[in-house]
Amino acid sequence: MILEHAELKRILPHRHPILQIDRVVEFEPHRRIVATKAISGCEPCYADLADDADHRFPTSLLVESMGQAGGVLWLHSAALSGEPPAGTLILGSARDVTLTGAAYPGDVLRHVVELDSVKGENAFMTGETWVGERRIATVGSMLAVMRADDALTPAG
Amino acid sequence: MRNYAAPLSAVDKLETADDGTVTAIKDIVAADPYLAGHYPHFTIYPGVFSIETVYQAAREALTRDGATAELAGIVSVHFKAPLLPGDRLTAELTFRPSPEDPSIVRVKAKCTRADGETSGRITLAMRVTS
Fold first, then answer.
1. Distance separating alpha carbons of residues B115 and A154, to the nearest angstrom
2. Within an 8 Å CB–CB cutoff, is residue B31 touching chain A?
3. What's the pTM?
4. Residue of B27, B38, B74, B98 to mutate for A, most A C-beta atoms under 10 A
5. What superfamily would CATH give domain A5-151?
6. pLDDT at residue number B72
C-alpha cells in the first residue's frame, strides 16, 4: 500500500511546514511502515544560515519525521480496523536515539518503523532512518500518545 | 545568521550559574517557524522543539571556549505536560562527562513551565572536541 502526501493529511494533524513525511512506500497494518521525506534547502530550518554553516538536517526534525511515520502506522492501522483512537497525537517519550550519520539538502530520508505494542492510547515503536544504503539514526524505543484535547490546557 | 541548521531560535536567554548549571529560557510564540502547522486548530510547542531548546543551550555552553560540540545521541526524553503559546519554558541543564567515553558529555535537563509544572525531562549525549 502506498500513501501519497494528500492522504497523509487525512491521517495526521500536522500541516505545512511541520508535516515531515512526504510519502509512505510500504505499509503492513499494525506491524511496519516505510516512509520517505525529501530534504530541501528551501525548508525553514535553512533560513538565516551562514554560507559556510553546518547544513546537516536538524536531529529534532529527523526525530519528528520518524515519529510522524510511526503515527501514520498506528493511526492508519487503527482506522483500517475501525477503531481510530481519539485525541491529539503527541510524542510521549523516546529512548536510545543513536546518530550514526547525517542528512543534507538533496537527501531523501527513509524511515522504517515497527509497531511493538499498543496499550490503550499509547503506542510503543522502534525505528531506523536511512539515506540510501547508510543508516543514519536508530531509535531504541518511542512512545506515541493520543492525549485528550481537554488535557491540553494552558499553564496557570 | 546561524552557523548550523535549526528549525527555530529555541533559546531566548541563557544563564550560567557558578556551579556550571545552565538555565535556558524560551518563550512560546505561535508565530515561530514551523508552529503554524503544529497544529492548525491549536498550537503546541512540539516535544522535539524542547529537545532543540536543550540542544541549542548545551551547544552554546559547551562551545564557549572554542571547542566544537555536536549531538551524538538522545539518551532519553520524556514529555509530561504541554507548552502552549504565552507559556515560558525554563530548561535547567547539568553536565557530566560520560563514564564510558571521555569525548562525550551527558547533558541532563529538567524542563519546567511558567506554572512550575515539569513539562519534560531530556538527557542528551554531546560529543565535544577541543
1. 10
2. no
3. 0.96
4. B74
5. Hotdog Thioesterase (3.10.129.10)
6. 97
